[in-house]
TrEMBL record:
Organism: Acanthisitta chloris (rifleman)
Coiled-coil parts of chain: 44-78
Region (Disordered): 1-22, 102-147
Highest taxon in the source lineage: Eukaryota
GO cellular component assignments: microtubule plus-end
Name listed for the protein in its UniProt record: Nck-associated protein 5
Biased composition (Basic and acidic residues): 1-11
Keywords for this protein: Coiled coil
Amino acid sequence: REKLSVARLQREVAQSKSEGAMREKLIHELEEERHLRLESEKRLREVTLESERSRAQMRGLQEQFSRMEETVRNLLQSQGSPGQHGEGTVNIMKVYQEKLSEDSRRCKEGMEKIHTLADEDSRSESSSTEEEKEKTKLLLERLKALE
C-alpha cells in the first residue's frame, strides 16, 4: 500500500514538474510574441512617419514645380514673341523641363519605395497578426488549463 501511494505521489510530482516547465515555456513564448508585436508596431510607426515626410516633400516639390512653370511663363512673356529670342527661350525651356522631369522622377521613385515598404509591412503585419492571435488564443487556453 505504501509503495502504491509513494508511486502515485511520485507521478503527481513528475506531472506537476512537467506542467511547470510547460507553463514557463508558454510564458516565454508569450513574452516573445509581445516583443515581436511591439517591434512590428514600432516599424509601422516609422514607415508611417516616413510616408508623411515624403508626402510633405512631394507637396513642396509640386509647389516648386508650379513656381518654376510660372517663372518660365513670365520669362517668355517678358521676352516678347518667340521669333526675337527663340533660341535662348528654347534653351531655357529645355533646361527647366529637364530639371523638372528629373525632380518629378526622383520624387515618384521615393514615393513608390515608401508605398512598397508600407505595403510589405502591412501585409506581413496583417498575416502575422492573424497567426499571432490564433497562437495567443491557444496558448492562453493551455495556460488556463494548466492553472
